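Title: Prediction job returns without error message
Component: structure pipeline
Severity: low
Priority: P3
Assignee: unassigned

Description:
Job completed but the reporter wants confirmation the result is attached to the right record. Sequence as submitted:
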Amino acid sequence: MSSNPLEEGDALEVYPRRGISIVRGKGARLWSAEGREYIDCASGVGVANIGHSNLSVAEAVANQAKILLSCPGIFHNDRRGELMQKLVGIAPGGLKRVFLCNSGTESVEAAIKLARASTGRSGLVTAMRGFHGRTLGALSATFKYRDAFEPLLSGNKFVPLNNIEKLEAAVDDTTSAVILEVIQGEGGVRPAERGYLSAARRLCTERGALLVIDEVQTGFCRTGRFFACEHFGLRPDMMCLAKGIAGGVPMGAVLCADTVDAGIGVHGSTFGGNPLACAAASAAIDFMCREKLANRAEQLGGYFSQQFQKKQSNSVREVRQIGLMIGIELKQKATPLLQALLDDGIIALPAGPTVIRLLPPLTIEDQEIDRVISALQRVL
């Protein structure tokens, strides 16, 4: 145990620590306790889409904190209602109802329960390499991290991403839902193909299952659209949201179509939809719309791709990029290079053993992207 609170000596150690203490952030930059500056290409694992310490969100949180912090779901609330209207307004067509919770994992848990309640079935079909959360229900739908926690929910099937034949064989009359990421984040920034997603939609409709699209990491302008499924004109029965929804304040949501049949008591959340988080999310969405962050992500993603490929290293196997969601597949292990980037003032993430993942704030400036590219080229 350490006497230095910056070292979090009392923490239950479940994270692989990077050895620095972050104490301040602004825009795309973070500062350590020692005053060293970093360009953040992790964004709290895809949370800080609108940048760190966004003033619009900070002011909304400060104002709401003086009015009302908590309001259970048995009462209506103005902030909650305002946010729900905004979510339905920006969502793909057909998603008309909202359940609010506190995280991406919680949104997936809710979707699993709602799928079971709506269909009377219990099976799930999800993709290999997919990631949907670490609690027991969401972990049952997740390809990795599960072995030590078996037995999980039964009746789950994993199929290769983009293999329509295997997907068609897996979806049957026991399937309550097919749960997919349009772009697998933890799985290496791997995009689904249009034909595969169309097949998933068709099979769910034909066989009485629900299509659940996990947009926890891809949502809120990250890929150059408000939601990644918009690239494909996809209309899911449920869409799971979190991470970038509230500018850093913990929040999750499930958006539902009329095919989802919920009833009183089917699910609930003590803190879900609290007025403070709703005020933050409402301000964050307004900022995204006002600053046209989806367009910005698309343009800056193209700029990164163009500049990085000018001097691409031979150690790079492939670059997978859509908007400002970037995966650099290497011919070697990524961990030593992530440490080298950190030493060079760049915070990045892994996505599997050989992939460097970049999820910078969508407010990042051109010159900051140039600095990231220069550091990558030096390290590679």
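Comment from assignee: result matches the submitted record. The domain at 5-54+292-379 is CATH 3.90.1150.10 (Aspartate Aminotransferase, domain 1).
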